[in-house]
Specification:
This protein has about 210 residues and is of the alpha+beta class. It folds into three domains: about 50 residues, no CATH class; about 80 residues, Ubiquitin-like (UB roll); about 60 residues, DNA polymerase, domain 1 (Orthogonal Bundle), CATH 1.10.150.120. Helix content is about 35%, strand content about 10%. It has a five-stranded mixed β-sheet with strand order 2-1-5-3-4, with helices on both faces. A hairpin with a 2-residue loop joins β1 and β2. The structure holds FE2/S2 (inorganic) cluster (2 copies).
Length: about 210
């Protein structure tokens, strides 16, 4: 094995000292570029919170609520367990039955699959916010008129989902109504009455 003028070796498969320093230089540059990117990513990354309680604010049915919850708490549990708004039901707790439907910024969502902390700054509406005093919301009234409920456990979710539909499409076709409500399940089988209520409800203002 011969020494070259940089003190490295020239044999195939070995690295001269000059090559070694070149490699180290490129490596250092790459490291410093990565570090700058990391710093930028860190600066723009969301701030980590938890795992303990953190203060949050939720705007529900036009009212501000301040509460402390762990970041893992769902919007459904925060509303039911911390704010005592128990009209919204918890059934599957995994985004498949629609019993927990709320309207957030005009869209029907599964509150069991939404974190409370994510809902901050949004306009949240629940079944409790629909009636005006003793006067039912037109959709609630339509459900009564068409017998669109039996045990009633799925009903708040269906009513809220129907409100979201009619605020978007005031006169839906049966097909549109069916499609919009297909994320809600009724174990008592009240679908005919629910669909009729969705088609009959009048006076729902566009959201
Ligand atoms: S409880 Fe949320 S979808 Fe069933
Ligand atoms: S009315 Fe009983 S689950 Fe729908």
């Amino acid at each position: 094995m011969a020494k070259n003028d940089q003190g490295g070796t020239d044999d195939a498969g070995t690295v001269s000292r000059r090559d070694f320093f070149k490699t180290v230089g490129v490596g250092s540059l790459a490291t410093s570029v990565l570090t700058a990117e990391d710093a930028e990513a860190q600066a723009t990354a969301p701030r980590a919170v938890g795992p303990g309680d953190v203060p949050i604010r939720l705007r529900i049915n036009g009212r501000e609520h301040a509460l402390n919850v762990e970041p893992r708490v769902t919007l459904l549990d925060a509303v039911r367990n911390r704010l005592d708004l128990t009209g919204t039901k918890r059934v599957c707790d995994r985004g498949s039955c629609g019993a927990c439907t709320m309207i957030v910024d005009g869209r029907a969502i599964y509150s069991c699959s939404t974190l409370a902390i994510e809902a901050q700054g949004k306009n949240i509406r629940t079944i409790e916010g629909l009636a005006s005093g003793t006067v039912l919301h037109p959709v609630q009234q339509a459900f009564c008129d068409t017998d669109g409920l039996m045990c009633g456990f799925c009903t708040p979710g269906f009513v809220v989902a129907t409100v979201a539909l009619l605020e978007k499409i005031p006169n839906p076709t049966p097909e549109q109504a069916r499609k919009h409500l297909d994320g809600n399940i009724c174990r008592c089988g009240t679908y005919v009455g629910v669909l009729e209520a969705a088609l009959n409800a009048k006076g729902v203002a566009r959201g």
